[in-house]
Amino acid sequence: MNVTVIGSASAVDSEERALRDLYLEHGPALYTYVLRMLGGDTHRTEDVIQETLLRCWNKRNLVDDEGMAVRPWMFRVARNLVIDAHRTRMARPLETGGATWLGELGAEVDDIDRMLSSVVVREALRSLTPAHRDVIRATFLEDRTTQEAAELLGIPQGTVKSRVYYALRVLRLALREHGAVADEDGPSRRPDPARTAA
């Protein structure tokens, strides 16, 4: 398969060679100009350069008859393309990347789950006696050791440990009633009759 790219070195047509020469002569300066306007985005810069050259090709404005007459026209076209693209982006809603919307959706769900979990935990904490609630608050919520909690509450350290143990059991039961904690036993496992018979 023999393919000739417009403006390539193997181009036969004089217009194709003229486009290649035009790109070689003005391309680097045009690239720098557009790259600066686009804040360093090389992909969009290449798109703008390509579209500028395509418009130059369509207008048959490939020959520099009057010295530098083509160069200002190309720069103006490139500038207008950048401005048009910017206006189009501002008029449309913000585009998101491939998985960005999924992450944002997950963050919303996490916030809702967190809020619902806090409501369930708050209800479960209300089911505790005041003494158990004080011990849980002092140890878990205020991040104290059992010794520090005992000194704060004015009770022996062994009593703090005992109350934490029983408070956690009551909390686990309350959370299980609310459906927030799965049963510890899980599904019952009975022996498979086919295996025991063999």
Name its key features.
198 residues, mainly alpha, Rna Polymerase Sigma Factor, Chain: A, Arc Repressor Mutant, subunit A, 2 domains, 8 helices, 69% helix, disordered N terminus, disordered C terminus
Give structural notes.
The protein is mainly α and 198 residues long. It folds into two domains: 14-91, Rna Polymerase Sigma Factor, Chain: A, CATH 1.10.1740; 100-177, Winged helix-like DNA-binding domain superfamily/Winged helix DNA-binding domain (Arc Repressor Mutant, subunit A, Orthogonal Bundle), CATH 1.10.10. The chain is built from eight helices and no strands. It has helices spanning 14-37, 42-59, 70-91, 100-126, 130-141, 146-153, 157-177, 193-197. Helix 1 runs antiparallel to helix 2 and helix 4 crosses helix 7. The longest helix is centred in the middle third of the chain and has 27 residues, at 100-126. The model is unreliable at 1-7 and 186-198 (pLDDT under 50).
